[in-house]
């Protein structure tokens, strides 16, 4: 029985159903497997970090979970496309596989938008937690999220009902009407690219408030700006849409478009999880290295339980330790409490004694240390920049 190709081959080309070139298909498989592996690992680490450090899940974590679910669905459908000829020139694909392939393309179009939106929400909502003292900055982020939410909701309905009836999308023989598919996905990708760039640039205005070295600022940029690679993927995806979305060779063209879509979402999710990893590492490191046990004349029987952590030691019997964690009301140093604060606070050259102090509208009075009472009254997680006051502690140890 003769197999009918899904598309008439170019002149002089003979359909090859047995062993067709699979370059794009192989790349698609590799990107999906790597993406799922890295994203799953980092999402698990992010949630574990929340559990270990704060014991509760924030709204940015919920957005990350939703984005991860969407990504798994998006990637699964993309892998399913390979079964129906994805990544292979359509004249090398049997005709009976073209319809299920088109159904998979429709599904990826619908899933892509909400997944990208949830990913961006995860990043931006995390920034509102970190930079909570900057009210105008946070209000701008929420307004930006609102605009994006309206856009992606509208675009979702346009994609769902791109054809009326919907089955006409994969069966053009049916009577009905369809929107211009190329114009719709091109517009969607342009807006997605613009919003990607906006998410990348939004943290930049606060860089002037960070009184740290240039090297430290570069480290901060690496943490919050890792999503810049997602902008590159989004740009390449747009180029692919412009060049190939009108091509009749759909099994090759849309697999290539989705290849860059998968990379964009995966990198976005990885970037949303990056800031939590230093927090987890520092938390585990502190738990393993906290060994100080000193008695204080002012009533603190054990520095270990009062939340103090010695950053250095002195060989003399008389030692002086200073606690100096200061941020002015509107400027100077920003303390990122719960992430990698060593990035945000220049290391003190001398020996240092540090503790955490919390104060604000949610408390009747300021609380310091990691005492049980302090922990019970804490109603927010530590992943944010805190405004603190300057405190200095002097201690003289007696001779043995």
TrEMBL record:
Organism: Aplosporella prunicola CBS 121167
UniProt-recorded name of the protein: Rhodopsin domain-containing protein
Family per similarity comment: Belongs to the SAT4 family.
GO terms for cellular component: membrane
Main location group: membrane
Domain Rhodopsin, first and last residues per copy: 45-282
Domain of life: Eukaryota
Regions that span the bilayer: 27-49, 61-84, 104-128, 140-162, 190-210, 222-239, 259-281
Subcellular location: Membrane
Membrane topology category: Multi-pass membrane protein
One Pfam family in the UniProt entry: Fung_rhodopsin
Keywords: Membrane, Transmembrane, Transmembrane helix
